Amino acid sequence: MTPPQSKNFHTANPEAESAIDRSIPEFEAAKISDEDEYFQNHKPPSYLPEIEKEVQEFIEYHRKNTQKRIALVTSGGTTVPLENNTVRFIDNFSAGTRGATSAEYFLENGYAVIFLHREFSLLPYSRHYSHSTNCFLDFMTEKNDKIEINPKFADEMLKVLRKYNDAKESNSLILIPFTTVNQYLYTLKTVSECLHVMSSKALFYLAAAVSDFFIPQSRMPTHKIQSSATKDGELVIRLAQVPKFLSRLVENWAQGAMIISFKLETDNNILIKKATSALDRYHHQLVIGNLLQTRKKEVVFVKPNGDNDWIKLNEDEIKGNVEIESKMIPAVIKVHDEWIQSNSS
């Protein structure tokens, strides 16, 4: 059994050979889509063929041996490097909690999961301990010169361990990392095209916090920006808008798949309007809306037919530390059932 994640590369390492190239035009003269322009003017990650091979093998294994549905879960935030040899970057607010938690519940409900995540963000199963308020060593104790699990945590750790082992032994989870927005977009495109063969049995659960703006490679300096080079102690950065790739995902990369996006807002008065607008624009199947202030307690499913279904934790569930994803994922699967049925008739 091979491990679920390749250890041969780290996405946080800059690629020095892809330094600034003035021969690449910032804008194409021909009238092509923003998506085409982006991929023509930005280089793919060097490790992308390795990821493509691993993902294709994962998909084929489940097509031939288990017939499981496959969920692509994206998780964590993308960075926007300010230099090619990156020292400084703009980051997104996301630890990957929703994605990592949701991935576990997809696995428990019989899905195979491709987990496209920000490197070093929360991961399924290890999330229970890697970002705990306790030091990981607090979960252990010493007895007779040997390390043992602290009895206080043993029962819960055993449950998590069994679920993790089940996912690993059934080859149901593959971990694919990204760091920058460019790595995310190229990897999403590659994985989506691989999942095309799954048609309606593929589910895209796009929980990653993707940067809205970036610095094109044609404008990115090679080395660290020197503080002495700033004018009057101010650094002025000109950012370009990241093309909206959801329409390409729906129409080209993964035709037939069920696609779910997320809408995070801070103003309750515009949440439904923004989610509905996304559905109208991209023609996908579901937007899950949530407010920053209450995202762990309630979400709303906004559907193309105009239905808005709220999923909320009650007071007892909140006190009992119930994860809202435990209610969200069964509801998502119900929508996926309907999508598969509508595409098979």
TrEMBL record:
Domain of life: Eukaryota
Residue spans of biased composition, Polar residues class: 1-11
Single GO molecular function: phosphopantothenate--cysteine ligase activity
GO biological process, one term: coenzyme A biosynthetic process
Region feature Disordered, mapped onto this chain: 1-22
Domain DNA/pantothenate metabolism flavoprotein C-terminal: 193-296
Family to which the UniProt record says this protein belongs: Belongs to the PPC synthetase family.
Protein known as: DNA/pantothenate metabolism flavoprotein C-terminal domain-containing protein
Protein source organism: Candida maltosa (strain Xu316)
